[in-house]
Design brief:
This protein is mainly β. It is 7% helix and 41% strand. The chain folds into 4 domains: 242 residues, no CATH class; 130 residues, Immunoglobulin-like (Sandwich), CATH 2.60.40; 140 residues, Sandwich (Immunoglobulin-like); 38 residues. The protein has 1 helix and 40 strands.
Length: 594
C-alpha cells in the first residue's frame, strides 16, 4: 500500500478557561460569630468608586444619581462556597468599587465602612482597612482551573499540582496599579495545601486535614501567591509522579482564588448571659441547671411587661423571655448562653443567680471585659444603643469541710447567745490584711465607713447552740484564709477584744499558727485532742474577770503588769522601813540630849 495515498490530519484541543471575578461577603456579630439568615439578613451593594466620596474620618457619601452595580442579600450559603450569613457578587467587571452594607440584620447596627474593591486582569482585591474597623478579608487559593485538574488529581499519571503552598503578601495601590511584596522564604507563614477533588470552590484543603485553608487579614491590601510543594514527598500516601518545577515558579494564575470580605455588626440593645462551671472538687453534678432572675425597668423606671425574642444555646421552647411586673426567670447549664434581643434603650436590668441548696461552690461574674467579681448579683446594668451587654457567671466547685467550736465561760460552761461571722479574704489590695480588723455590725454587714469591704466576703454567720454552746460552720471551701469575728456577745459578758485568723491545715480548719493567730487581743482558741478527735473552744469573760488563757499579747500584758506590781510593793516596803528607821534614830538622839 502506497503511503502517499493517505492524507494526515492533526488536531489539538486548547482549553482556555475564563476565571470569574467573584467577591464574597459574610456577616458576623461583634464576637466574630456568623449571623445566620435564620436570625436576620443583611443587604450589601456594590457601587462604582466614582459614585462614592470617602471623608478623612472614614465616613462615606453616595452620589444621589448613583446606580448600584449589584445588590446581594445574605443567606446560609452551601454553594459555591459554604458561608453562613454569606452572599456572592458574581462576574464583576474590571473596575474600581466600594462595597457598602445598606441594611443590617434585625437587632444589629449596620457597618459604617465602605470597603474599597478593585478588579483587574489578575483577579479581585479588597482593602481590609485598619485593625479596628471591624472589617477583615479572607483570601483562599480557590480551585485549580479546569484545564489543569488532570495535574492535580492523585493518580499514577501526573500529580504536579496535587500539593501546593501559598503565601500571603501585602501591597500598595496607586494610580499605576498595585505594587506587591515578593515571596519571602524566611517569613514562615506559608500554608501547605492538598487537592481534595471535592468539586467545590475550595477544593484544596490543608495538608494536616484540619484548620482553615485560607488567610485572614485585618488591614490593608493582600494577595495570595502559589507555588508547587515538594515538602511532603516522604509521605507514602503522596504520589511521586510529579514534574519538579523550579522552586520559584509562580502558579498563582492557575487558581481561581477566593476573596471574602467579613463585616462585623454590633448588636442593638441586647443582653447576653452565659454560664461556666469549673469543677475542682470532682463533685459538680453533670448538666446541673442554674436559675437566674432578671428584674428590669424601662427608662422611666417603670416595671417591664413584655416578651422578647432570644437566641443562644440555652433557649426555652418558646424562644422568648416574658417579663411580668419587671421580673423574668431563665435557666442555664455549663457552656450555655442566652441573648435577649431588642431591649429598649435606657432600660436597667439586674441579674441574680439563685443558690442551689446542698451544693458548695463559689460564684463570680464579669460584665463585658471587666475583671471577675465575687458574687451572684450584678447590680444595675444599663441597656444602651452601643451594642450588647454581656454578663458571664462562673461557678467553681472546690473541696469543702466543716469548722466548729464550743462557746464557754471561764469555767468551761456552755454559753448560748453568742453570734459569729466567718469572712474569707477575697482580694489582694495594697493594704496589710494581717493587721486589718474588720469593722462589722451585729448582723454581719460591714460598717459604712469600713474601707476594705471589697477584700472580705461573708461566708456564713452562726449562733452558739442553746444547750451545747456549739458554733457550726458547714461546707467551707478549704482554700484561702478566713477571719472569725464575734459579732454578738452573750448578755453579761465582755467582747473578746479582737478577731481570729482561721486556715485549713492538716486536714481540718484551725487557728493560724506561727504567732499570727489573731488581730487585736482576743482569748486564745483552746484546743483539745482526745484520741485524734480535735475540738476547739472559745471563752467569754465577764467584766472584771482576767482572761488568763489569752493569747501572747495578753500574757505579756499580765506579766509586765505583775512585775510592775511586785516592784511597786517592794519599793513601798523599802521606803516604809527606811522612813521608820529614821524616825526611831531621831527619837533616840532627842532622849540622849535630855
Amino acid at each position: 500500500m502506497d503511503s502517499d495515498e493517505f492524507e494526515r490530519v492533526f488536531s489539538v484541543n486548547l482549553y482556555v478557561p475564563n476565571i470569574q471575578n467573584n467577591l464574597y461577603v459574610q456577616k458576623l456579630d461583634e464576637s466574630g460569630t456568623p449571623v445566620s439568615a435564620e436570625i436576620g439578613t443583611a443587604t450589601f451593594a456594590l457601587y462604582k468608586a466614582e459614585d462614592v466620596t470617602i471623608a478623612d474620618d472614614g465616613t462615606y457619601t453616595i452620589r444621589d444619581e448613583a446606580t448600584r452595580v449589584q445588590t446581594q442579600t445574605t443567606s446560609d450559603m452551601t454553594m459555591p462556597l459554604e458561608l453562613t450569613g454569606g452572599a456572592m457578587f458574581s462576574r464583576i467587571p474590571i473596575g474600581e468599587y466600594y462595597l457598602i452594607e445598606t441594611s443590617a440584620p434585625t437587632g444589629y447596627v449596620a457597618s459604617g465602612q465602605a470597603v474599597h474593591v478593585i478588579v483587574d486582569n489578575t483577579g479581585v482585591y479588597a482593602d481590609a482597612g485598619t485593625e479596628t474597623d471591624a472589617v477583615s478579608v479572607r483570601r483562599g487559593v480557590g480551585s485549580v482551573v479546569r484545564s489543569m485538574v488532570q495535574f492535580a488529581t492523585d493518580d499514577d499519571v501526573d500529580t504536579t499540582l496535587h500539593d501546593i503552598k501559598t503565601e500571603l503578601v501585602s501591597g500598595e495601590h496607586s494610580g499605576n496599579g498595585f505594587s506587591w511584596d515578593s515571596w519571602d522564604a524566611n517569613v514562615g507563614n506559608d500554608l501547605h495545601l492538598q487537592f481534595r477533588n471535592t468539586h467545590a470552590v475550595l477544593e484544596y484543603g490543608t495538608y494536616e486535614g484540619s484548620g482553615n485553608p485560607y488567610f485572614e487579614v485585618e488591614s490593608g491590601w493582600s494577595k495570595l501567591l502559589v507555588r508547587q510543594c515538594l515538602a511532603h514527598q516522604e509521605d507514602g500516601s503522596i504520589s511521586s509522579k510529579k514534574q519538579h518545577l523550579d522552586e520559584n515558579q509562580d502558579l498563582t494564575n492557575l487558581f481561581s482564588g477566593t476573596v471574602t470580605v467579613c463585616v462585623k455588626n454590633q448588636r442593638i440593645n441586647s443582653l447576653t448571659i452565659s454560664k461556666t462551671v469549673v469543677d475542682e472538687s470532682g463533685e459538680a453534678p453533670e448538666d446541673q441547671e442554674f436559675t437566674f432572675t432578671l428584674t428590669m425597668t424601662d427608662a422611666s423606671n417603670d416595671q417591664m411587661n413584655a416578651s422578647y425574642n432570644v437566641e443562644g444555646t440555652g433557649l426555652p421552647e418558646s424562644r422568648t423571655v416574658q417579663f411580668s411586673d419587671g421580673r423574668a426567670e431563665l435557666t442555664l447549664s455549663h457552656g450555655e448562653s442566652i441573648t435577649i434581643r431588642n431591649l429598649p434603650a435606657g432600660a436597667h436590668v439586674n441579674v441574680t443567680e439563685s443558690d442551689i441548696e446542698g451544693q458548695s461552690y463559689t460564684t463570680t461574674y464579669a460584665v463585658g471585659d471587666e475583671a471577675p467579681v465575687s458574687g451572684k448579683e450584678t447590680g444595675e446594668l444599663e441597656i444602651t444603643d452601643s451594642g450588647s451587654v454581656n454578663v458571664s457567671f462562673t461557678n467553681t466547685y472546690v473541696p469543702t469541710d466543716d469548722f466548729s467550736f464550743i462557746k464557754t465561760d471561764k469555767d468551761g460552761k456552755a454559753l448560748p447567745g453568742a453570734k459569729f461571722a466567718l469572712y474569707r479574704l477575697s482580694c489582694s489590695a495594697d493594704h496589710n490584711h494581717s493587721e486589718d480588723e474588720i469593722s462589722v455590725k451585729e448582723n454581719g454587714e460591714f460598717l459604712e465607713d469600713y474601707g476594705y469591704k471589697a477584700c472580705w466576703t461573708l461566708v456564713h454567720a452562726a449562733e452558739s447552740d442553746d444547750i451545747t454552746g456549739q458554733v457550726q460552720f458547714t461546707d467551707i471551701p478549704t482554700e484561702g484564709e478566713y477571719r472569725l469575728v464575734e459579732i454578738k456577745t452573750p448578755d453579761g459578758y465582755a467582747a473578746p477584744g479582737g478577731q481570729w485568723k482561721i486556715v485549713y491545715s492538716d486536714g481540718r480548719f484551725q487557728p493560724k499558727g506561727n504567732g499570727d493567730a489573731s488581730v487585736g487581743n482576743p482569748p486564745a482558741i483552746k484546743e483539745e485532742n482526745e484520741g485524734g478527735n480535735v475540738t476547739y473552744s472559745i471563752v467569754n469573760y465577764q467584766p472584771g474577770e482576767l482572761p488568763f488563757s489569752g493569747n501572747t499579747g495578753i500574757r505579756m500584758f499580765l506579766l509586765i503588769g505583775g512585775m510592775l506590781m511586785i516592784l511597786g510593793a517592794a519599793g513601798g516596803t523599802g521606803w516604809y522601813m527606811y522612813h521608820r528607821k529614821s524616825v526611831v534614830v531621831h527619837r533616840r538622839r532627842r532622849r540622849h540630849r535630855i
